[in-house]
Amino acid sequence: MNSKILTVIIAVIVAVIWSCDSNTFEDISTGTVITDTISYEGQVKTIIETRCTGCHSPSGRASSVPLNNYQQVTRSIDRIIDLIQRPAGDPFRMPPNGMPNTEINTIIDWKNKGLTEK
């Protein structure tokens, strides 16, 4: 019985040591420079144009909620943040196929940092 316990303990220790990761920042970095300044013109406009204006424009299916400029986006920002964070399968998720967490976080950070235009 004691040898079984000892074997398990040794196996756990080996697993813990084996699982330690020694990657450096350079090993795991994507090389993307993170800036403290987030603005509509600098980052958010491109995300909205890529992910939203196909439907949220005058000729789109969701033309009643246009997202074509800074004023329209800031006016709807709380609703936008609610909808883009919804889980897959939620019928109100926007865009329906979702968006990368990095883009969601950029929009949230933009709001939290004051909705800078330029």
Strand content: under 5%
Contiguous runs where pLDDT drops below 50 for at least 5 residues: none
Topology order in helix (H) and strand (E) letters: HHHHHH
Secondary structure: number of strands: 0
Task: Annotate the secondary structure layout.
Elements: H1 2-19, H2 25-28, H3 40-51, H4 70-75, H5 77-84, H6 101-112
Helix pairs in contact: 3-6
Protein name: Cytochrome c domain-containing protein
GO molecular function: electron transfer activity; heme binding
InterPro entries: Cyt_c-like_dom_sf
3D architecture notes:
- This protein is an all-alpha fold and 118 residues long.
- The protein has a domain at 40-112.
- Helix content is 51%, strand content 0%.
- It is built from 6 helices and no strands.
- The radius of gyration is 23 Å and the shape is elongated.
- The mean pLDDT is 87.
- GO terms for molecular function: electron transfer activity; heme binding.
- This is Cytochrome c domain-containing protein.
- InterPro entries: Cyt_c-like_dom_sf.
- It comes from Chishuiella changwenlii.
Brief summary:
With 118 residues, the protein is mainly alpha-helical. The chain has helices at residues 2-19, 25-28, 40-51, 70-75, 77-84, 101-112.
Features:
118 residues, mainly alpha, elongated, electron transfer activity, Cyt_c-like_dom_sf, heme binding
